[in-house]
Amino acid sequence: MGRKITREVLEGYLHCKTKAHLKLAGQQGSMSDYEALLVARRQEVRQQAIAEILTKHPEAEVARGIPLTVAALQSGPPFVLDATLEDDLLSLGFDGFKRVDGASKVGDFHYIPMLFHEGQKVGKEQRLLLELYGLLLSQVQGRLPAYGVVWHGRDCKSTRVRLSPDLRRAERLLSEVREMAAPSSPPRLILNDHCQVCEFRQRCLEQAVQEDNISLLRGMREKEVRRYARKGILTVTQLAHTFRPVRRGKRTQPRGYKHHHALQALAIRDKKVYVYGTPQLPAKPVHIYIDVEGCPDDKFDYLIGMIVNEGGSERCYSFWADERGQEEQILEQFLTVLARYDDFLVFCYGSYEKTFLSRMRKQCKWKKEVDRVLKALVNTLSLVYTHFYLPTYSNGLKDVGECLGCSWADPGASGVQSIAWRMRWQDTREERLKDKLLTYNLDDCKALKRLTEFIYAANTALDPAGASSPRDQNGPPVALVQEIDRLGGDRRRGRIPSFHPDFEYIRNCACFDYQRQRVFIRTSKVLKKNRKKPKRYENQKLRISRHIEIESDKCPECGSTEIIRWSKGKKAAGHPRVKRVLDLVLTAGAIKRRVVECRAVVHECTKCGQEFMPERYERLAKHSHRLMSFAIFEHVSHRMSGPMVEDMLKELFGLTVCDSELHVFKSLLANYYRLTYQRLLEKILSGKVLHVDETAVKLQNGKGYIWVFTNLEEVVYMYLPTREGAFLQELLKNFQGVLISDFYSAYDSIDCPQQKCLIHLIRDMNEDLLNNPFDEELQAITGSFGKLMRNIVATIDQYGLKQSHLRRHEPAVTSYFKSLASQTIRSESAEALRERHLRYQDKLFTFIKYDGVPWNNNNAENAVKQFVYYREHSDGIMRETGLKDYLVLLSIYQTCKYKGISFLKFLLSKERDIDAFVGGGRAKRSCTVELYPKGFTPKINSRSRKKVAEEPKAPGQDKP
């Protein structure tokens, strides 16, 4: 077999499978200046590292160019350089090995791999390569090295890298490369970030353009490309047909826009610039465009270019730094120019300039001046990314600029190329390279200026109705995303604006309610008779069911009982004052309305002269506790809206209760039952099992999350503005039971036994199987797990959640995880599932060690579902205060439901302890509750009128 796996092939595979395939085929591409510079830099690092090794060890003790065999290593040199490994497929050259203590097959010592790397940082590719070298080395010396050494950077630093004891990742990588060496079809082309420095970049780009490859969209990651491939979407044109604009409701709060790859593909297909959403563009008289060039690995920025545009006049500046110590000097020059202008905007492309200014702010003494620049900084890339979709494969400044007619003096100029020019200039100090960098930097500023002006012009030319702007002669046409709806069909939502103001007036006069109340009523006797009347005084016409006079026997000021009640004719103020109380009488067979008229006169204390009204009269509520309880019962239990409850009370009982009063009912009862809510939470946290889940909710002024805590009987709903789980640490610090939850990472930090919901896990596994129907390794893992769970569930169905019967499955569980840990898997989806099982192996089968611990989170999910039903009709219209009140009442309702008791009867009982209500005679109390609290005795009881004495405040008659 002629094709051998070399180090170039391995390094290429770590970056791109296509590159590894081409290297195996023996092809050579055109190496870029940057890549050639990296090769030279690696050689320099290699020479410096070897020189440093030779200063500590004589050259005779350092072995060079030996084959990697047991016999060669048994001699035990301190260092081995340029070792080679040859077999039927491999022809690898190793940078070196270092001898360390520890017995192995070659003696009482063993070797660790070394790597020479040109970069300043040790990346993921270098770690994977070290692990692979460690795997091959372990096959020779019989021991896996615990760590490796990387020599890297301009200063040739030596960094110790810990190697993973799990060899599966390295074994899988090596087996995939071995399979690639066999004659087979090439891997599917997927462009990535490495393409800009790869020697095959031009070849792959031409192939991708010919195929219309979806990976041409540079903002799309490989995982997303594969996800689209599973759906059969392989080209940019196919992706363009999938875009559907998201319609935002009237109550939807404006939030950040995400980037739509499908809309980018659509812009490329239609060769248009699509504007999505409403960009907010600041306006200032002076626009300044800046671009900073630097070496990211060295954290050194050497060039600031800027263009100042004031009133049509344009000035260009370039500030150059030869050495790192001149960074503050070029910043001072930059700030000096800005000090000439009072009101300006500074435009940049990307976050590099902001990072530079923030870093320099910590080092320099011009903090106020830098803060002024940061405050005026506008990232044009963020506007392009969220609102403006140009017909380009990427949002890089060069691609966008060329689309708008910009050009660069050097066609091969790019960000990577500028780094290569700077590195060569540092070595040679050629003036030609410096001129190239200055010219390229100003070309970037000009492109940024052109793009920013195009964005401002496009935003001005597009009116809110969606009309497109006239075509820009130097750029593609611009259109709003709403135009896609017009081209796609006649389906429209919401009110369509009228072209003429007269049309708008006519349409408003044609509304259904307007015509019935203002037009048809003048000619229709039926409509005139049934005309809606003001609701304000409708309750005053209701027949009085009972009259009550309220008196007080004690002065609230001095406590004297010498009280004079003003008669009707004594003083004008002596006329009785009247209040009406609206009540519902609920019995076992019926519900009826009752209107109670309460009267009181002014009282005067003969001892201290205090004039007062009876306190009970002053705090008398308009609506009784039973009426409020019945309304809230319908709202919470049957999810009736405020207008629906209002119509029901009017239709059935003739009571006029407006929607705003229902909100007051909810607030009053929530405050009254707040103590019940706290008791439920305390009982849940002191139990042996705790189910927890969360769901999102939209409010009028933002977004929040509803957290649910429950056991088998009690439920508590809690609102928090974020999904962060930091509050759980404090809330559950004394919880001693088993926590049952989904796989949200916030629960992992809780210090208590945990059981993960296996229904969530099975649901995810089933989705993976549907997405990968031919993955045999995935089917093997899920099949084994399914058999194990089926046996356990069968035991639960027969004996219940009893530890004594479930313990017999522990050996099968242990065997399952041991088998899973020893497998070497090549499939990505199967490997991800295996790692997930092993990561949570202590939390998947906790339920077999305890009594009464479920293996799923159905209790919490069922409780969440009750709120979701309410959220369907109120999402986006709730406020935080009203939502918290509702959650208090919903917690009590759901607890009553779990305990099998009536929520309405509990509310009518005025009891605050649900357990006490369950233990007492709840049926009797629910049907015999009177308007006034228990133990209250009236003074006079007649058929038509009764007098009552003053009583202390109690819940039920007054506001809770």
CATH hierarchy, class of the largest domain: Alpha Beta
How is the largest sheet built, in terms of strand order? 1-2-3-4-5-6
**Tell me about the biggest sheet?**
6 strands, mixed
CATH topology of the largest domain: Nucleotidyltransferase, domain 5
Report Rg: 39 Å
Features:
960 residues; alpha/beta; Nucleotidyltransferase, domain 5; 7 domains; 6-stranded mixed sheet; 5-stranded mixed sheet; 38 helices; 27 strands; disordered C terminus
What does this structure look like?
It contains 38 helices and 27 strands. The chain is of the alpha/beta class. It folds into 7 domains: 175 residues, no CATH class; 83 residues, no CATH class; 195 residues, Nucleotidyltransferase, domain 5 (2-Layer Sandwich), CATH 3.30.420; 31 residues, no CATH class; 109 residues, no CATH class; 128 residues, Ribonuclease H-like superfamily/Ribonuclease H (Nucleotidyltransferase, domain 5), CATH 3.30.420; 90 residues. The strands form 6 sheets. Strands 1-2-3-4-5-6 form a 6-stranded mixed β-sheet, sandwiched between helices. It has a 5-stranded mixed β-sheet with strand order 10-9-8-11-12, sandwiched between helices.
